[in-house]
C-alpha cells in the first residue's frame, strides 16, 4: 500500500483528493495537514511514500524546501489555474517537488483521478535526495544573435517528462549566451503551466526562452518550447508547425518532434532524452540515430523517472548515457 499525505487548507480540494485516493487501488491516506508547520512535523513522523501539496497553501514553498532538507519525500503539487498559483508551483518544482498537476480537473474531468493515481504510484518509486535550499537570483534572458536557420544548420533537440523542469534547468543553465545552435525542447506539461514555467526558466538561463510559433524558423542562441496543446514539428524549410495525432498519449509528443527532425535534419541533429515515465521519445531518438544524428540519454542515477531514457537504451537509440552535468559539458563541446 502506497501511503499518501495530503497538505491543503482548502476543504473542497481535500475532499476531492480523498475521494480520488479511495477510488484508487494500492493507495492509502497516511495523514493530512492544513498548515505548513503541521505538515512538516507530521510528515517527519509518519514518513509517507508521497506528499500531495497545495501550491497556494501559505508557506508551501518553505515546506518543500524544509522537506527536501530534513525529510526528503516525493512531492506532487496541486495548482490552481491562475498565474500566481502556477508561479508558486514552478518555485516549488525548483525547490525539489517532482511534478505539478492542475487541481481543477479533479472535479471536472472523470479521468483526472486516474491520472493522479498513476502519478502517485510512479512518484512513490522515485528516490529523492536531501538538498539545501539555495537562494536564487533571477537573471534576465540575454538577447540572442538573430540569424535565420535552415535545415542545413545544426539543431539541438531535448525531450523530457516527469522531473524534466529541474533537469532542463540543470542542462540549459550551463550553456553560454553565445550558444551557436537553436535549441528545441519538448516537455510534457499540463495545460496552463507552460507560460509560468518558461518565465521561471528564463530567469535561470542565459538564452532567450519562448514558445515556438507556427511558421517561425529556429534561430541560434534561442530556446524554443513546444506548446502545451499540440505536437511540434519542423518542416523541410526549417519552420515550426503544429500537429495533432490522437494516437500519441502526450501533447506535446517527443516522438513526433524527433521523427520530424530525423526526416529533415538527419546528421545535423543532436538529440537528448531526459527523465520521464513511459517510452515517449525512444522511437524518435532511434530514427535520429539511424539518420546519422548524435543521441544522448540521461543516466538512471540522475533521473527522477528512468522510463524514457531506459526505453531508448533498450531499443538501441542511445549512443551516450550521461548524467546531467556530463550532458551539459558535452553540449558545450559538441558545437
The percent range for helix content is: 25-40%
Shape: elongated
**Main sheet specs:** 7 strands, parallel
Rounded to the nearest angstrom, the radius of gyration is 20 Å
Modified residues (4-aspartylphosphate): 54
Domain CheB-type methylesterase: 149-335
Organism: Methylovulum psychrotolerans
Catalytic activity: [protein]-L-glutamate 5-O-methyl ester + H2O = L-glutamyl-[protein] + methanol + H(+)
Features:
elongated, 335 residues, seven-stranded parallel sheet, Rossmann fold, five-stranded parallel sheet
Write the SSE topology.
Elements: E1 2-7, H1 11-23, E2 27-33, H2 36-46, E3 50-54, H3 60-70, E4 75-79, H4 83-95, E5 99-102, H5 105-108, H6 112-124, E6 155-160, H7 164-172, E7 183-187, H8 194-202, E8 208-211, E9 222-225, E10 231-234, E11 240-243, H9 254-264, E12 269-273, H10 282-290, E13 294-298, H11 307-314, E14 320-322, H12 324-333
Parallel strand pairs: 1-2, 1-3, 3-4, 4-5, 6-7, 6-12, 7-9, 8-9, 12-13, 13-14
Antiparallel strand pairs: 10-11
Helix pairs in contact: 1-6, 2-3, 3-4, 4-8, 7-12, 9-10, 10-11
Q: What features would you describe in this structure?
A:
The chain is an alpha/beta fold. It has 2 domains: 2-124, Response regulator (Rossmann fold, 3-Layer(aba) Sandwich); 155-333, Methylesterase CheB, C-terminal domain (Rossmann fold). It has 12 helices and 14 strands. It has a 7-stranded parallel β-sheet, with helices on both faces. The protein has a 5-stranded parallel β-sheet with strand order 2-1-3-4-5, sandwiched between helices. Helix 1 (11-23) packs across helix 6 (112-124). The longest helix is centred in the N-terminal third of the chain and has 13 residues, at 11-23. The radius of gyration is 20 Å and the shape is elongated. Residues 135-150 have low confidence and may be disordered.
Amino acid at each position: 500500500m502506497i501511503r499518501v499525505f495530503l497538505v491543503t487548507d482548502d476543504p473542497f480540494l481535500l475532499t476531492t483528493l480523498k475521494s480520488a485516493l479511495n477510488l484508487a487501488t494500492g493507495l492509502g491516506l497516511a495523514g493530512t495537514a492544513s498548515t505548513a508547520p503541521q505538515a512538516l512535523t507530521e510528515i517527519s513522523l509518519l514518513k509517507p511514500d508521497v506528499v500531495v501539496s497545495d501550491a497556494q497553501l501559505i508557506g508551501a514553498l518553505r515546506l518543500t524546501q524544509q522537506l527536501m532538507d530534513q525529510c526528503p519525500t516525493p512531492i506532487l503539487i496541486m495548482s490552481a489555474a491562475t498565474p500566481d498559483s502556477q508561479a508558486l508551483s514552478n518555485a516549488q518544482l525548483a525547490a525539489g517537488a517532482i511534478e505539478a498537476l492542475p487541481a481543477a480537473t479533479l472535479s471536472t474531468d472523470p479521468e483526472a483521478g486516474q491520472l493522479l493515481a498513476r502519478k502517485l504510484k510512479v512518484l512513490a518509486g522515485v528516490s529523492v535526495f536531501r538538498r539545501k535550499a539555495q537562494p536564487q537570483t533571477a537573471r534576465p534572458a540575454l538577447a540572442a544573435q538573430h540569424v535565420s536557420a535552415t535545415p542545413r544548420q545544426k539543431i539541438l533537440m531535448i525531450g523530457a517528462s516527469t522531473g524534466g523542469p529541474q533537469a532542463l534547468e540543470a542542462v540549459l543553465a550551463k550553456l553560454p549566451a553565445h550558444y551557436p545552435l537553436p535549441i528545441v525542447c519538448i516537455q510534457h506539461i499540463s495545460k496552463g503551466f507552460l507560460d509560468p514555467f518558461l518565465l521561471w526558466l528564463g530567469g535561470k538561463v542565459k538564452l532567450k526562452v519562448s514558445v515556438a510559433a507556427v511558421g517561425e524558423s529556429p534561430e541560434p542562441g534561442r530556446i524554443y518550447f513546444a506548446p502545451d496543446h499540440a505536437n511540434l514539428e519542423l518542416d523541410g524549410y526549417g519552420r515550426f508547425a503544429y500537429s495533432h495525432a490522437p494516437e500519441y498519449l502526450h501533447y506535446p509528443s517527443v516522438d513526433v518532434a524527433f521523427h520530424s527532425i530525423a526526416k529533415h535534419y538527419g546528421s545535423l541533429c543532436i538529440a537528448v532524452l531526459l527523465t520521464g515515465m513511459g517510452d515517449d521519445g525512444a522511437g524518435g531518438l532511434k530514427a535520429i540515430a539511424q539518420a546519422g544524428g548524435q543521441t544522448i540519454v540521461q543516466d538512471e542515477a540522475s533521473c527522477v523517472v528512468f522510463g524514457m531514457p531506459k526505453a531508448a537504451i533498450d531499443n538501441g537509440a542511445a549512443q551516450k548515457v550521461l548524467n546531467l552535468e556530463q550532458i551539459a559539458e558535452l553540449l558545450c563541446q559538441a558545437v
